[in-house]
Amino acid sequence: PETEDNFFLIIESKTEFEPPEKGLLGRHALYDPAAITTPEPAPRLDDAREWEIRIKVEDEFSSVFYPFNPIDVVGWKGDLTAWKINLRDIRPVMSHRAHLPPSAHTTFTTRGAVICSFVPRPLESDPEAQRVPFFHRNTDYDEFIFYHAGDFFSKDNIAPGMATLHPRGLHHGPHPGALRNQARKTQTDECAVMLDGLDPIRVLPPGSRVEWEEYWMSWMEKTPAR
């Protein structure tokens, strides 16, 4: 956006988020562990007012009230912690001969879902390699993608701040223009986050009000004007 407004993609899970198993790639694959940042406890002065903590369970909220600042922490101990990694610090897995499936770009896993990050990278250099995502349909997962920044050359009419949802069982893949022009590209210039979930992803009324209902038509070849 041109203003100071921000878009936030918030993903909730009933279990913790973890890095994926990296197998033969080793622990330094995808990003250097030194690039991970964690919060530092910062004692805050108590302003002697009432504080409310909202606890969410199964889409229902309960409130707990404190007569002091409840986040007056001085340290952290345990197996789970809050941490973050910047998209700019992700080094994607690449292949010069084969287009890798989205699972190669998995950043986090949680029970019943995976989160993948698509960042700028060189495209496949083998002349016979496909450089755009292959056509497919997911039999078990719904696929949601949030487009953060860049030029999404495999999709027509997709801009930063938009999102797509492909429910399981529906075929999808690159748009016709992307297939024709893939040989002209040498690298991607996009940042996007994908959530694949075993549980169905449902669109709430606010999302339905801004839905582009003709999205499915973007796969149809445009008839040249006469």
Concise summary:
With 226 residues, this protein is mostly beta strands.
Describe the structure.
- The protein is mainly beta.
- The chain contains 2 helices and 7 strands; from the N terminus they run ββββββαβα.
- The protein has a domain at 23-30 and 94-215: Jelly Rolls, CATH 2.60.120.10.
- The strands form 2 sheets. Strands 3-4-7-5-6 form a 5-stranded antiparallel β-sheet, with no helix packed on it. Strands 1-2 form a two-stranded antiparallel sheet.
- The protein is globular, with a radius of gyration of 21 Å.
List its traits.
226 residues, mainly beta, Jelly Rolls, five-stranded antiparallel sheet, two-stranded antiparallel sheet, 2 helices, globular
Oligomeric state:
single chain
CATH H-tier superfamily of the domain at 23-30 and 94-215: Jelly Rolls
What's the CATH first level of the domain at 23-30 and 94-215? Mainly Beta
- How are the strands of the largest sheet arranged? 3-4-7-5-6
Tally of DSSP β-strands:
7
Distance between the termini: 37 Å
- Helix/strand/pairing class, anyone? mainly beta
CATH fold title of the domain at 23-30 and 94-215: Jelly Rolls
Q: Portion of residues in helices? A: under 10%
Give Rg in angstroms: 21 Å
- Strand composition percent: 15-25%
Q: Tally the helices: what do you get?
A: 2
Shape field: globular
Instruction: Summarize the helix and strand pattern as letters.
Output: EEEEEEHEH
What is the arithmetic mean of pLDDT? 87
Largest sheet: 5 strands, antiparallel
Low-confidence stretches: none
